[in-house]
Every structure is written in structure tokens, then in C-alpha cells.
Amino acid sequence: MFKGLIGRKIGMTQIFDENGAAIPVTLLEAGPCFVSQVKTPETDGYSAVQLAFGETKPSRLTKGELGHLKTNNLPPVRVLSEFRTKKMGEVSAGSELKADVFSAGEYVDVVGVSKGKGFAGAMKRHGFGGGPRTHGQSDRQRSPGSSGATTTPGRVFKGKRGPGRMGNERVTSSHVRVALVDAERNLIAIHGSVPGPKGGTVVIKEARKQ
Q1: Is the pTM of this model over 0.90?
Q2: What average pLDDT does the structure give for the chain?
């Protein structure tokens, strides 16, 4: 059976298990999601399910997007995302998926866009140790140090870690446990942290590392 949802990060809190131990969790508003398209090898060359999430004003969508959603009598939505899958099950275009697709104790992958940190130095961006604080060192404490080589090759190699823009990248939290599912309020609690800011869009998939 197909398992996947689009959601919104609400924030972090804690819940308590039957032994009274505190579990840090991230709350996600997962669904309701609409199946906007089902792709098959016969029609598209591969198997996938396209989900739609987050109702919005029709004026915020293009006519092409509105027409695509109108094909299955769906309302205007903010986010469309495609899930490649071979476990199609009984999913059909126009149907609705809610948080109860997943159950507590399952393992999932959560994909989001990390918080943008702007331009950052090498120590913050890559965890470098910095220069020594002794022997007359006055302005190199947070420097990455020498980045070049000698006469051969006489240049800095491609991919050398240094200062630059940090964050605002697609990040996947792999194999995280679902701690709680509240189907009535469309809430899923994930054990631990999830990439992205509060209010950020996330994609929840069945864990690949089963």
C-alpha cells in the first residue's frame, strides 16, 4: 500500500511514554492530502503518486495548475509533490489521504528545506577548529588556515571546504520514528528534530532503510 504525505512543521514539544520518560518530538500537521494524479508505466513510463496539500486562493495559481486540479474536482492547493513508488495499492486520483496512513512505531523519512543561515565562516559552516590562540596569534583564531597547495598544482582544488552560504538546502531526516498519530487533528509527532523552520513544508515518506 502507498504511504506518503505532505505536511507543515508546527514546532517541537515533548510527550511522555508509559514509563514516564520524556520524549522530544516535532509536531507535523500532516494532511489532509489529495491525490491529484496517479502515474503508471503504461501512461508515463514509471509509477508515481502526485499529492496536493494546503488549500489556498484560486488567484494564487496559474490557469494550468487550476485546470490540472479541476480534472479530479480538487480545490486550489499550494503544494504539489510527487512520490515514486511501486506499492500503488488502491490509490486513485481524487481520493484523500490523512495522518492515519502512518501509525505510531513506524519509521519514516522526513524531507524539508533547512533554515538559511546566510554567509557563514568555515568554522560555523564546516566545524573547523580554527588557528592556535598562542605564539602571537592575533587575527587568525577563526580562520580556515591555508587552502592552497605548493607550486604544483598551484591552485585550490575544486570542492575545498571554506566560507560560503550556509543552509537553505534540501535535507532528509532518515529513519526517524513516528511517536504519535492523532488522525482527528491530522497531527503526527516525530521522535527528534525535523529540518526546516516552523511553518515550513515537509514531505513524509516510508523509510528506505527498513
Answers
A1: no
A2: 90
